[in-house]
Amino acid sequence: MLAVQHLKVAYGPTEVLRDVSFDVPEGKIVALLGGNGSGKTTVLNALTGLVRPRAGSVRLKGEECAGKRPDEIIRAGIAQVPQGRDVWPSMTVAENLELGAVTRRDRAAIAEDLEAVYDLFPQLREKRKRRAGSLSGGEQQMVAIGRALMTRPRCLLMDEPSAGLAPAVVGDMVDAVLELNRRNLTILIVEQNVGVAAAVAEYAHVLQNGEIAVSGPADGLLDDPAVLRSYLGR
Amino acid sequence: MPVFSRRNVLLVLLAGALILPWMGNPYTLFVGTLLFIYVLLAVGLNLLVGYAGQLAFANAAMFGIGAYTTGLLQVRLELPFFAAFPCGAVVATLVGLVISLPALRLSGLYLALTTLAFAQATQWVFLHWENVTFGAGGFKTPLISFAPLPVETPTGLYFLSLLLAVLLTLFAWNVAASRIGRAFVAIRDGEVAAESLGIDLLRYKALAFAMSGFYAGVAGGLYSALLNFVAPEGFDLFQMVLHKAMIVVGGLGSVTGSLLGAGILVFLLEALRAFKGTQEIAFGALLLVFVIFLRGGLVSVLKRNARGWEEPLRLPERRARLLARPGTASVPGE
Q: Are residues B197 and A148, on separate chains, in Cβ contact within 8 Å?
């Protein structure tokens, strides 16, 4: 589904990603892990066009996305749930969700997708007229995910969906990610929380110093004390 | 619909404005025209600052550019007012577009300083490019005529300003309730999130700057006709503070708030005209009070305590369906 090859990103003279290559197979959940400052968010931003890669290719089902504008990449089918939720606080929940579909013109399908988001997160339907800034952290995360879903993505990128959530809510988030995957959405999830990654992902890639250091099935990899110790600081 | 809803209150005010020329004296006619000019300025600035969240300080400069272009085209090239006036609006719009270029890279205080520098540079050009602008003394513009319409100049200008203020306020309401208004607010509320969802920052910031430039340009043209005189001091920092005060007092991110703010400040401006120097103090104090105690402006009080003053970022369902013509609705892409 998503094939990333030899991706290179630099901010001025500072190379953040040297040579990153990995695949996200269709219908799977893949985790991208790494310590602070290892470049995880930069990978996502390069995939969605927020950062222009210096070199390398990002293919979604064979279509080259590297170097395109964010709105073109969204239309191609990649959407990002940004870090820290980042909902638009002064807009209502419904306005946030509707604006997720800003790149689309197919009104009927947008309305269907809005219903689908409300079915996935029934709390949001109840609170659709509330200002997004007044919601709890977990609910804001739902808005952020729902907003990304409104672009009708084929591949969803999630940047630390569990960060800053109450432990009780993290479980709900895991369930939501698994449910989205059951609905045939391919997901690339960036996580600091190895527990969350292990709970949802089939494959995992560990990023270190701007390169993929280890990859493998999530089960074996994230149980391996050596991996946890050397790459993830556990 | 409650009796004191926004629509009813504004309709009564509009009715009052329509009969004012037969009730008032030349002075009230002048103040009325001035009010409509400030409504245009406040509405345009609020789209840029209140909705799109771009802290720009170039509104007075664009107001001046509209006034100077309209005035100079009449004096230097002897164009009639009704040809010069649209040119003034177009030039101010283009200048707005140019200012939007640094806005892509700058935000917050840096954008404020850059646009302030632009405003000061504009002021300098008005003052020192004497061969064209007549320098510090300014210049007189010809008295405009509404012939063949049977109205005198002040009355005609009053109705022209009223018409433009009403049309452009309605337009602003519709923009705010459209995809464009929501994109503006998205950029204001979270630029990264907006960009990551495919909102083209370049396009919408440029649009916000161009729109505020257009409103200021229209206002400038009317202002030159109202005073029959254009001089640099009319478009200085005090003018800018006046516009900012209007949208802060009325309510940032609210078209209705712009109307309220313009009304209150024009009233204060006139009430304090006899005491030169007190205007600045009064506006400064008013700004402080609102920034500290009433962040949402007057309109937020009305929204909380009266029904029918909400300004949702989209049209009511019924109107939205009427506006959505089949055929245009399902075209994919932009």
A: yes
Q: How far is CA B318 from the centre of its chain?
A: 29
For residue A30, the surrounding DSSP H or E stretch is: strand A29-34
Residues of B in contact with A78 (CB under 8 A): none
- Residues in chain A closer than 8 A to B331 (CB atoms): 105
Cβ–Cβ under 8 Å, residues A58 and A2 = yes
**Residues 6+ away with beta carbon under 8 Å from B221:** B66, B67, B69, B70, B84, B85, B86, B88, B89
Give the pTM.
0.86
* Mutation for A interface: B196, B203, B303, most A CBs within 10 A: B196
Q: Which fold has domain A2-232?
A: Rossmann fold (3.40.50)
* Secondary structure of residue B86 in the 3-state scheme: helix
Classify residue A163 as exposed, middle or buried by CB count within 10 Å of its CB (0-12, 13-18, 19+): middle
Quickly list H helices, A19-126.
40-48, 70-76, 93-100, 107-120, 122-126
- Searching chain A, which residue's CA lies closest to the CA of residue B328? A105
Of B186, B329, B334, the CB nearest to A99: B186
| ipTM rounded to 2 decimals | 0.82
Residues from B in contact with A at Cβ < 8 Å: 179, 182-183, 185-186, 188-190, 192-200, 253, 312-314, 324, 329-334
* pLDDT tens for each residue of A2-53: 999 999 999 888 888 999 999 999 999 999 988 887 888 899 999 999 999 9
Beta bridge partners of residue A78, listed in sequence order: A155
